[in-house]
Amino acid sequence: MNVGDSYPMETKEQIRKRIIQDRNQMPSEDVAKKSSMIAQKVLKTPEYEEAHNILLYADYRHEVMTREIFDDAVLRKKKVYFPKSNTDCTMDFYQVVSVKQLESGYKGIKEPVADERYLYQHNRKEDTLIIVPGVAFDMNGYRVGYGKGFYDRFLQDKRQMTVMGLCFSSQIVEEIPHDQYDIRMDKIVTEEIIYSFLRV
After folding, report:
1. Average pLDDT over every residue of 138-156
2. What percent helix, strand, coil does the chain show, rounded to 5?
3. φ and ψ of 6, to 5 deg
4. Is the C-alpha dihedral spanning 114, 117, 123, 126 positive or negative?
5. Residue 156 class from Cβ within 10 Å (0-12 exposed, 13-18 middle, 19+ buried)?
6. Cα-flanking dihedrals φ and ψ of residue 76, to 5°?
7. Which residues, other chains included, contact 65 with Cβ-Cβ below 8 Å and sequence gap of 6+?
8. Which runs of E-coded beta strand occur in the chain?
9. How far apart are CA 84 and CA 82, in angstroms?
């Protein structure tokens, strides 16, 4: 390949493998410190401050930790929901008021108990912020997850929700291949910067 030639774009699987390997090598103290920096940025965003409902995730294997966001949201009397995965690669969110309500579920990820009384019901009249994990995010707002499509399916008919991705700056890549089924983030928050994307 000559100087000036463009390199072929990495596939999602190549990005996923590379970023997971890098992220798993981060010292736990760095994960905790950077997660707190990210959480503090999230808490100051208007999307978070104005949200009635926060759809959060339970962090897993060096993902950005979310306990700080959860504690603040509960303190502010926001309704906080966590996802529970289904066998068909869909998921439902259930309200949680204490982390003690979470138990080991799909792949060991902490999940709420399925209880219809606390099932998240989409309401267009309420501001809802969904905070999304990811393996990698790109400069256009697209995301690589773990390949099962849980979040893309959940968000297909809920585009009035604000979608915020959390990741470490080392998980930002230049470009991720995407199609019409891939949901674009409204914001991505890292320990260094907040990326915002206008919807078109």
Report:
1. 91
2. 30, 20, 50
3. -85, 145
4. negative
5. exposed
6. -85, 5
7. 31, 32, 35, 36, 39, 59
8. 53-55, 79-85, 91-95, 103-104, 110-111, 128-132, 136-138, 143-144, 162-166, 172-173, 187-189, 194-196
9. 7
Tell me the backbone φ, ψ of residue 117, rounded to 5 degrees: -65, -25
User: What is the structure's pLDDT at 7?
Assistant: 56
Residues 167-181 pLDDT 10s: 999 999 999 998 888
Residues 46 and 82: their CA atoms lie apart, in Å, by 21
User: CB of 52 within 8 A of CB of 129?
Assistant: no
| Six token digits for residue 44 | 């100051």
Q: Are the CB atoms for 166 and 194 separated by under 8 Å?
A: no
- 4-50 tens-digit pLDDT: 444 577 899 999 999 999 999 999 999 999 999 999 999 999 999 99
Say whether pTM exceeds 0.85: yes
Scored b (16 or more CB within 10 A) or e, 107-127 reads eebbbbeeeeebebeeeeeeb
128-132 and 162-166 strand pairing:
parallel
State the pLDDT at residue 5: 47
pLDDT tens digits along 73-128: 999 999 999 999 998 989 999 999 999 999 998 888 999 999 999 999 988 889 99
For every residue of 151-172, DSSP letters joined together read HHHHHTT-TTSEEEEE--GGGE
Contacting residues for 112 by C-beta, under 8 A, at least 6 apart: 81, 82, 84, 94, 95, 96, 101, 102, 103, 118
